[in-house]
Amino acid sequence: MHGRAAEISDPGALGWEVVWEALKTEEPVDDPNTIAQELGLDEERELHLPKQVGGYATEMSGTRHGRSVKLRLGVMPSIWRNQPATEVELDSPVTPFSVHADDGRMVMESGALPEVDEVLAELAESPNVWHDVVVEGGPDGILARRPIKMKSHPQGYVYDLWLVERLADKLGA
User: Fold this and answer.
1) Distance between CA atoms of 31 and 136, rounded to whole angstroms?
2) Is the Cβ–Cβ distance between 88 and 63 less than 8 Å?
3) pTM, two decimal places
């Protein structure tokens, strides 16, 4: 499956390890800079969390398919007070849209874009994968975010990376 993510129409039917393998764009190296080096995310840095929380999150970034991508683990978005989250950000402008998980399905919030609807229509219900995730697109690119919770999928960001790239491809970003 190495490098064959475009052939996957519904990652929710697959284990995260299969999707991870399909998302790989780089050959393995003896001493990788990041755990996501094979995904093309070969730069890593610490992001300091707000003082009242303390600690730090990790951001891995790189270029995938000509687009800048960032994967953040343990960030604290202001919209979720003191709730750590994972984020996948793809820096390529798109027509604004917003989708979210609802009972294991990804649904469009408003202003149906046919390209987004087409991607979402291919995704079967998968409560373990499409749980608590929100994806927003706009002039700054596409951002997928999900809280880190006991009931959340521990590698949900793998599915989120697949989803933001599939949406970007369909939207011509």
Assistant:
1) 35
2) no
3) 0.92
| Residue 11 vs residues 5, 47, 68, 98, 152: alpha-carbon distances, Å | 9, 29, 22, 20, 16
Domain locations along the chain = 5-170
The Cα-based distances of 87 to 2, 4, 23, 48, 135 in angstroms read: 23, 22, 16, 15, 10
pLDDT tens digit sequence for 84-139: 889 999 999 999 999 999 999 999 987 679 999 999 999 999 999 999 999 999 99
What does the alpha-carbon distance between residue 56 and residue 76 come to, in Å, rounded to a whole number?
A: 9
pLDDT of residue 81 exceeding 80, the answer is no
Element (H, E) at 19: helix 16-23
CB 76 within 8 A of CB 66: no
Q: Which two tokens stand for residue 35?
A: 């755990």
pLDDT at 55: 76
DSSP string of 140-167, one letter each residue: TEEEEEEE--TTS-TTHHHHHHHHHHHH
